[in-house]
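Q: Start with the shorter request: fold the first protein.
A: Done. Sequence, then structure:
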Amino acid sequence: MGNKLNQFFHMKERGTNVKTEILAGLTTFLTCVYIVAVNPGILAAAGMDTKAVFWATALSAAIACIWIGVWANLPFALAPAMGLNAYFAFYVCNTLGLSWQNALACVAISGILFMFLSIFRVQQKIVDAMPECIKHSVGAGIGFFIAFTGFMQAGIIQESPDTLLTLGDLSNPGALLALFGIFFTAVLVIKKVRGALLIGILVVTALGIVVKNPETGLAYTVIPETIFSFENPVSAMAPTFGQLTLEGMFSGSPEMVLGVIFAIISFLFVDLFDSIGVLLGVASKAGLVDEKGNIPCAGKALFVSAGGAAVGAVLGTNTVTIYGAESATGINEGGRTGMTACVTGILFILTLFFSPLFLMIPSIATAPALVMVGIFMIEPLRKMELNDISIALPVFLTVALMPFTYNIAYGILFGLIGYTVGQIAAGKTKQITKTVWVLTAVFLLYMILDIVL
């Protein structure tokens, strides 16, 4: 069996073995399994059934991980994207006003478009044409967006009629518990403890058993009657499986239709930029970049990311994409082949047997993970020449407007316009590609139509 696995995944050529690949897959899983606990709570804000979303999250991650492992032979983990889940629930559904069924259709359409772009390799041309400052600042902006969601979810930040936002009530035991979780998780990360985010979630969940919510009088963590459960998949996933629909999406006001179109573009662009950025960064760490700078099976990896988004939408979850930091942890443990991804996928399936444990996790326990993910995602900002205002302008607009407008798309829109304005002012119009000119014109047209209509 070991020889067959070695031959199938070409382990000898990549300097690894079965034992190392299994350990790497386990490590990757421990760093990204938090998504099965976090995602149901976030999408519940859109009115979705938490148990069904739990199943959809675990299954979509498992399918995508095994797919990229077997077909592309790459050690990357895929799962529903952090940041885009908050965008899905809080903007597309709660602000734009789409039903979650329509929002799933937006995700599916973006995934199918991404698949076509992957087939014809258009996505690489688009990303190559985009300025580096936008590529790097999108991830950082999403990081702030995620962290902001975590702070709000924990009650550490709250609305204020005078200042819009203010510090939450720190006498509230839930806010204090979440704050403790943030610093506790940060310490674990600093000390390079494997599975730090998951450990932080579990510790706060355990403390939530003895800490009561003053609003309800009940403990934050309600212990389930059983820790082991594997329901009939059909009944468990029925509330979300195949529920996506196009009905009513384009029959509203002009503002609504424009919002729908831009939501689809946002899902597509974020998935596209994130997938390629992660692929380039993580593949180099794994030594999978050849002398010419090419990555073997890069096209297949991007196609899986695109297909994962479409599959996830059908199952009932938000955009599935490649996880960068989490994949890097497994690669640091020696993962070099698709077996690492397959092990991660199999472990995601096993979480379905313990659904009561994951579903009992309160939002105050997942908030620290959101904040830490936000911290991880600001790292690309160090690569920016922020002393150059023509660069600092688009970077700032991209990063600031995502959390300030609670909309990832607006960050990309204003960031790209800011880049074009900055390059024109600096006399560097030759550096603006045709693609950027076209996108800037499209975004300006979108803004004009939004104002006029």
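Q: Next, the second protein, separately.
A: Sequence, then structure:
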Amino acid sequence: MNDVLLIALFAFLGAAAAGLLGAGVLRLLRHRSLVVSLSVVAGVAVTAMLAGTLTVAWAMFLSSHDLYVVTTVVAMAALVSLATAVLLGRWVAAHSRELTLATRSFGDGGTFAAPTGQPTAELAELARELAATSAKLDSSRERERALEASRRELVAWISHDLRTPLAGLRAMAEALEDGMAADSGRYLRQIRTEVERMNGMVGDLFELSRIQAGSLTLTPARISLYDLVGDALAGVDPLAREHGVRLIGDRIDEVPVEVDGKEMSRVLGNLLINAIRRTPPDGTVAVAAHRSDGGVVLSVTDGCGGIPEEDLPRVFDTGWRGSHARTPPAGAGLGLAIVRGIVEAHAGRAEVRNVQGGCCFSVTLPAV
């Protein structure tokens, strides 16, 4: 038993010395190719075995012939191990270069195509993660292009919408200044109307800029959804009467919500005004609210006739109008973008879907 322990001790000391030397070599060559690292690892394994064997042989006073035989066997094992390590390293390195080239392509704006036949599970997993990242980047680029297009479109629309009333205001101001206005009161009322419209557009732009900059400050308070909807319906009732649209709000559950009352009133107001303007005379705009598994759902259903399926993903984009109408009721295309921004600031979500005869805008808020 003592002899076995002594042999194990000598073998361990020889292998440990070789292992420490190999660790130092690996540290010096840690920035080199994988082929070099695998060769060092194989060399360390064989050297550790050789060092342990030679140490035991020396302690056991083996004959020269026996020591030569042991050394020859270990040398052959070293050659095979090094050859295997070099082949494996070159194989893995080649596939790594293919993966690098494929990664460079989607980093430059292309699409990542994973090379086939990855030699290791780790490289295969890395390829799958890169493919998933490429898909996310493609989606992000597409979203960015759509946002940039909507921004350019918005700037063009805002410029047009501001230029038209400014030209009218200038003409009316010149007419009043020159004393050419036959009905100065009508001119003044028209000037006030145009100023209020431009003030609303500027206010929407300011609100949207706060939302997109992340500087929208909320003051949440516990309020009843029934009261919130009731106030919003009362605020838009004159507009509904003017357009001949009937408002229905008899399906409102009295559930509490933790929201900023002022901002959520703006959300409801924008949704209701949009619905009233898009609903033909004698049509109906219905408001409903109920508790669901996902939170509290508030919906506004109009009679606009529906939105084309290809436009549904763009409804809440900045500048989207749903038509190219240049009449004032078309607005600047900011109302629904503001709705989504405020709702998301409340950790909720805004959605739209087509229903029979119109569409339904729904807002989901966290339940209290």
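Q: Describe the second briefly.
A: DSSP finds eight helices and seven strands in the chain. The radius of gyration is 38 Å.
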